[in-house]
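Below is our example:

___
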Amino acid sequence: MIPRPSRYESVAADAMIWIYGYNRKSQYYSCSRKVRNLIAGSEVKGCITLQTATEIIAVVSNPRSYRLTENHIDFPSALNMVADVLKTPNLRLILPTASSLSTAIDLCRKYNLKRKQWYDAVLAATLLNNGVHVLYTMNDKDFLPIAELSLINPFTETLRPGSFPVEWGKQPSEIPPKTAGDTSVDDD
């Protein structure tokens, strides 16, 4: 069972969750749709960042960046895909705040993030500055250093609770909160 916070918590899903949820040929399709359905069904408060929406377009419309070239779609279709994602019930678009850039810089310094982690830091800063502390992602390792985020990998059904208190829906209530230096992944 995919871990989930209570319906009062705001969550975000990264670009690949949305992308696989539209690719019926993907082995990740079913699981990605479950995350989308959690959001659409009001089981959690869903958010998508501007960065995630633009990443979806960039990935699916570029045959070199999406794992298999047969998964590539043309640019107008990519725009339609994001427009459709934005119509997901109970999903709100969140934007970087005035302090998101400085928060991203602070996260890079605090966790000694490298240049290749910059975009992940900007995404995390946008989430945190908008009060979102839970991220569904298949690339949980990209966000492991950032203790303020609780990470859920729906494909492995693993949860890495963050240091920010999150009200959990089902099973994670007995999982202790992470400390800032702990980057391990908990299995349910």
Summary: The helical segments are 15-20, 29-40, 50-60, 75-86, 100-110, 118-129, 140-143. The radius of gyration is 16 Å. Residues 29-40 form the longest helix (12 residues). Residues 138 and 156 are 8 Å apart (CA to CA).
